[in-house]
Amino acid sequence: MSNNLYFIFSVNNSLYAIDALAVNMTFGLPAIRNMEEAPHYIAGVINLRGRIIPILDLNLLLGGNEQEKNLSDAVLVMQGDQTLLGMIVNEVLDVINISTEQIDPPPRHESAHQRHPSLVLGMARVDEQIISILDHHRLLAQDLILDEQNFADLPKNTDAMSDTDKGILQKRAAELIRQVEDDSGTETLQLAVILLGQEYFGMDIRYVNEFTKIKNIIPLPNCPQHVLGNMNLRGSILTIIDIRHTLGMHSASFNQSAKIVVSSASDILVGVAVDEIDDIVQINPVEVVPLPASTHPEVLRYMMGTIHYNQKAMTILNLPEILKNKDLIVNER
To answer: Domain for residue 294, yes or no?
Structure first.
């Protein structure tokens, strides 16, 4: 039995998944420029750091009806050998491991709502929900010929939006255009962006197994306050920790909307409690700047630097070093 990491997202009240290795980044829906004479399922194009990226309306590609766009919609960017392709989804929900045993072959018949059954690799059963696993190779193979002369300036399906919401879309688009300095051949770093309180932190996705919701944590006796307890994760016991103490932050309780980042490094597997999982982004390491000189030496080794994100400074965490902290290890004897 093998496990693969998948992004889980919703489209038109249905759940879908795509191989996490094919995902380059996700971000909130920006303003999209129309592409005239394109297939009906092409929402348009965006300028992503100087590169023109076509955007699929996945709902239309899968046979759904035209829908108004919302600020809560997101774009998930897939990456092929020489291709970047975005697709609009209603919400990116989770990143989880799915085993081959959980996946059944897709239905052989073509339903009224599924005009492209060949895009579905299989149907996964996760927590009593059915998730359609999409074939990113076939999605990336869509025949999208870009001609900049065919661009129109008006985004599709935003007529019902207020002027304020349209302004937010335009600001998002402007942020995506921003060029990364010195981007010549530098290998990018993929980060999961989390929120602890009002502060952004980045976690190297290589040390992230999956995201999940907080549910039924059982407190452990004689453990420090930052060890929240154990949680049952699909039959396995996972220890949940609060890293705010390690980062020199004040402790605070987590509400029911909090999430768990299942993290592993050096044979240590734990669940890191966070207030929110905000995004998955690709960054250029040359953009990372050193931490301020005022940073306390005791927490300095747990941080790798800061980078500009969402008009604020985001601290990049040294997750392997955090998980080595002996104060986070539960003595089960």
So the answer is: yes
